[in-house]
Amino acid sequence: TNKVQHLPTMHLRLGMQGWHDAATGFLLFSLGTGRRIQYVISKGGSEALLQALTTTAQTEPLDHSILLPLLRLLARVGQRDRKFGLKVQKAEATDTILSLARRSLGHHLHLTHCLWVLQVCASNVTTGTTLGINGAMELLFKVITPYSKRHIRTVRAAIEALAALLKSSNRRAVSRGYLGGLLRLYQDWHRNDVSNNYVYIRRGLLLCLKHITNIQLGRETFLFSKGMEILFTSVQDCLSCKNLDPIINTVIQILRKCYPKEPLPVATVRSSYSFPLPGNAKAEPPCEGSEGDYESDGEEEAEKDLDSEEEESKEEDYDLETDVNKLRSKAVLDRPEEELGQYKAMCPELSHNFQSLEDRTESLLSAPSHSIPNATSVKHPNYRLRNQSVTEMGPDPGEKDFKVPRQSWTNKEIHRWDQTDEKRDIAETAQDAHSCEDPARNHVLIAGGSLDCSDIVTNLLEKHQGDIPFHSPHFYITRAKRVKSIPDYKDLAFPDFWGHQPPPYSKPMLERKYGVQRDKVLDDVRRLIQPDDVIGRTVFDLDDPGAPGCLTFFSKFESGNLRKAIQVREFEYDLIMNADVNSNQQHQWFYFEVRGMKLAVPYRFNIINCEKFNSQFNYGMQLVMYSVKEALQGRPRWLRAGHDICYYKNHYRCSATAGRGVKGNFYYTLTFSIKFPHKDDVCYLAYHYPYTYSTMMSHLDILERSRNPKKVYWRQQTLCQTLGGNLCPLLTITAMPESKKRDDLEQFCNRPYVFLVARVHPGESNASWVMKGTLEFLVSNDPIADLLRKCFIFKIVPMLNPDGVINGNHRCSLSGDDLNRQWLTPNSQLHPTIYHAKGLLYYLRSIGRAPLVFCDYHGHSQRKNVFLYGCSIKETLWQAGCMVDTAVITEDVGYRTLPKILDKVAPAFVMNSCSFLVEKSRESTARVVVWKEMGVLRSYTMESTYCGCSHGLYKGLQLGTQELEEMGSKFCLGLLILHLKSLPCSKKVMSQAALLLDLEEEITDRTQSCSNSSQEIDDEPPCVEEVDYNADSCSDGEEDFSELDQEIQEYLSWVEGKTEDDEVTMRDSYKCL
Predict the structure, then answer these.
(1) N or C: which end of the chain has fewer CB within 10 A?
(2) Where is the composition biased (Acidic residues) (predicted)?
(3) How would DSSP label each residue in 90-111?
(4) In the chain, pLDDT over 70 holds for what percent of residues?
(5) pLDDT score of 1052
């Protein structure tokens, strides 16, 4: 190896035969591991080989016994040398390589070796451009022939070299008319290769087409040359053969990339709803550079369409905060100190004298002791909001007259259900479905309907069995009538009114059907190729109501989101979600009603304006469905539903002129198929289990009435009024003092605080289900809950973004802002809930009562399991590669205690999914601000998956509402154990805990690792089918140099004792593996 640099002069000292022996030995050496070849490169092997090639090429006549081993060496070494192209130019070897190739045109063995080196050189953009200018493309097209069984290796080498060259010379190829020639060559090889012996040649031609179509001119020429039709037709012959996947995948990439781009079929990409902001504030769409922020999910996701995990890791490390001064806790104040006094009234537990221990909690339906209204009372002159002035927490004199529920919920006269109904349903199921009934017959219009709603409500309430825990349709209606929405909702969704009862089983994650993505993409391409069967009729539109089709859609109810539905084929519909209010993006949450379906027919739905570059829908997640007929038959539940689910990039783009959208922004399609359980049913489909504002408010009503007032201290106040005029409740929950004795009253007042918030992002409904579990446990009669209440005072804001939830937003408030990016400097007018939640935290800190734990409940769409994000200076600096002086930087590691506890007690929680890094892009989130400004060591974001679990008891299962609620209650158990481990406890508390908990297992710190201590594997295992989200990606494996290595090795084995005419006998070596 040390003599590598002397190869160019070796033949002068050793003679030709000696040089040949040395080169052959070097070849054998280089055929070892890639590690050895990298060592050779590091010693100047590439430069030495290029110089030897130049020297050898100048000898006359050419000594191929030296030249061919040298070319093989260059191909093997050059493909692994990242600077090989630069070295080729420096050695001025491009002309030498081209000259050798031209001189070898009459000898295919020699030519193949030249083509291997040419392929490696062309992989470099600069070198490839030089080769293209010097006529390499024309040379290669002389070698590439129509279908023939002769000289297969040479043709293959030429095609692969051309594919590499076209990465940099695609414009030259288009301008010289080579694209049409490549299409004809591909057709010829495809048509004649009936035995699929030459898959690599066909795929090589497709790679040439793929690189040519990377430029706009290439795509236009491809379309003009009927390339879409040619490839679409040819790929149909390959779908039945799994061995042809390399061809199918490449064709799919080309078809997706060349599908003509077009804007969404809407008048503007901005939301159909807008809201006048107070003062001079204007809702501006996020700037073009904010993609990484606005696409993040939960509190912590950075969703960037990166080419590799390595690049993603670098991006994450770059985002880490490395300034120690910025990481340290600082007691700052973003408002005048005198303002904090108003929050004293939000802590009545600190001043209550408890002269009588009888319950004195304010009824939710009566005026609270204190509330902070929004800084600006906003009128809504452009909308039918009838409740312009509301007595806080009191009855609304202008309550809306809801049509609750709509007659179309049953499509028949409402009546009590009995066995006769069941028999009739069975009989209906057996009948053939009628084509399309007149929807007007069973549909009550939003305005001008003559239906007596009170009779329907009364009839339905009589049917309700009242067996759904913590749910009351009566309470729900009362609360829903007070909701203020931009569309002025007059209808309620049946599931929210009737209630949800979890099924008695957990559903496993959906197994991905092989080839489902490509089948869906080909169906999309078929619309372009065969447009005659495309209906293209708008059947639902928020902006312009259209004629209904066979299916009828509706979404103008609380939390509903569906902007437009277009019937594509008889049983296929394109759906468009509405953007967040005052925004042109944030498309993820959907919730809508569909009715008029046929029985046992798979309906395909395509949601075509998703924004995230990946989704758990590709990894086993299903949407949820609620059937009205099932509910009326005693099975009122949301169920995971849908098959043939996949998520991929589509051909729709957002133009800069369409509602001030971000130019060039891609959209993605979520496609799924559903067979509805009944004919002419009314079903609801949603991204995740819905949990509306009215559901939350009525739930609080029920909790207040169900608690034991002698044990549970409950105060419900109003934190503030939202921009939309809705109330944001604040809860205080703890245990009543055991007596009026001084010691008991002091213990009551001195309990540490726990501050919990949820649902700052409206589309993260799973956060509300977790919060529901927390609240129900806290007011329950469970002895552990009773002990927990004696240990803490809980301050809870169960819904930080009521307006967003009500109006069907995914991420933002009515101001168009992500409220979880406003904690650093919240605006009292635009972000009142954040402003006053932070103000209350400031007040608690000012009186020396900063919370022991702060937790913000979220949902996560990109990962499985439930986990916490926390904050750590040292872990952040270590991850960023900074030197940490432990003598200067000290840190309490108590932030890890709670997640370790949860890992033991909560089946859905996984410690190894947790992170304690502080990113620059998260400095304005609740978790980071409360940690830094309030000095709360245990400041967390709790992320709950929309999908399921990859570890533990629920491994392989999708999480339902029951498991989410369980997580909320287990979080409470974790807080109790944290208290016992971290804070001084009285003997009485410890004795009670000893009776309730296994102290050895739950309380005592253990040295061994936790139950899930093994390093967490990749969050997503590879799919059965390669998932290609990006039509322009390079995931075709063409940079896998093992193919070229294998080709060279096979050639060496074949050439011994073989003649060129024997090549045809080796064709089996080129079948697709």
Answers:
(1) C
(2) 290-322
(3) HTT-HHHHHHHHHHTTT-HHHH
(4) 76
(5) 65
**In 491-613, at which residue ranges do the beta strands (DSSP E only) sit?**
537-541, 552-554, 564-569, 572-576, 591-595, 602-610
Contacts of 882 (CB under 8 A, 6+ apart): 322
Residue listed under structure tokens 């990113």: 919
Q: How many residues does the chain have?
A: 1073
Structure tokens at 461: 């309430």
pLDDT digits (tens, 9 = 90+) for 657-670: 444 444 457 899 99
3-class state of residue 279 by DSSP: coil
Q: Would you say the pTM of this structure is higher than 0.85?
A: no
Secondary structure of 972-1023 in HEC code, one letter for each residue: HHHHHHHHHHHCCCCHHHHHHHHHHCCHHHHCCCCCCCCCCCCCCCCCCCCC
d(CA 560, CA 480): 14
pLDDT tens column, 521-572: 999 999 999 998 899 999 999 877 656 668 999 999 999 999 999 999 999 9
Q: What is the mean pLDDT of residues 392-399?
A: 39
Do strands 793-797 and 753-758 pair parallel, antiparallel, or not at all (unpaired)?
parallel
- Residue 946 in contact with residue 864, Cβ under 8 Å? no
Question: Any idea what DSSP says for residue 881?
Answer: T
Active site residues: 943
Q: Which of 618, 624, 616, 647 is nearest to 865 (CA)?
A: 616
Over residues 326-346, mean pLDDT: 85
What token pair was written down for 428? 């209906």
* C-alpha dihedral (89, 92, 95, 100), degrees to nearest 10: -110
**What value does the CA radius of gyration of the chain take, rounded to a whole number of Å?**
34
What is the distance between the alpha carbons of residues 484 and 802, in angstroms, rounded to a whole number?
10
CA neighbor of 183 nearest in space, from 158, 213, 140: 213
Tell whether omega for the bond before 61 is within 30 degrees of 0, i.e. cis.
Answer: yes
- Give the angle 817-264-292 at the CA atoms, nearest 5°: 40
- 27-63 pLDDT, tens digit each: 444 445 567 888 888 888 889 999 999 988 888 888 8
| Nearest by Cα to 724 from 809, 655, 822, 654 | 809
Q: Centre a 10 Å sphere on the Cβ of residue 363 and count the other Cβ atoms it contains.
A: 12
Beta-bridge partners for 867? 943
Confidence of residue 416 (pLDDT cuts 50, 70, 90): very low
Residue 846 CA to residue 1000 CA, distance in Å, equals 38
DSSP three-state, residue 753: strand
Is residue 372 within 8 Å of residue 718, measured between CB atoms? yes
Of 565, 568, 612, whose CA–CA distance to 296 is shortest? 612
State the Cα torsion 551-557-560-565 to the nearest 10°. 30
Which residue carries 């209350």 as its tokens? 840
Spatial distance between the Cα atoms of 553 and 844, rounded to a whole number of angstroms: 48
Determine the 3-state secondary structure of 359 from DSSP.
coil
* 45: phi then psi, degrees, rounded to nearest 5: -65, -40
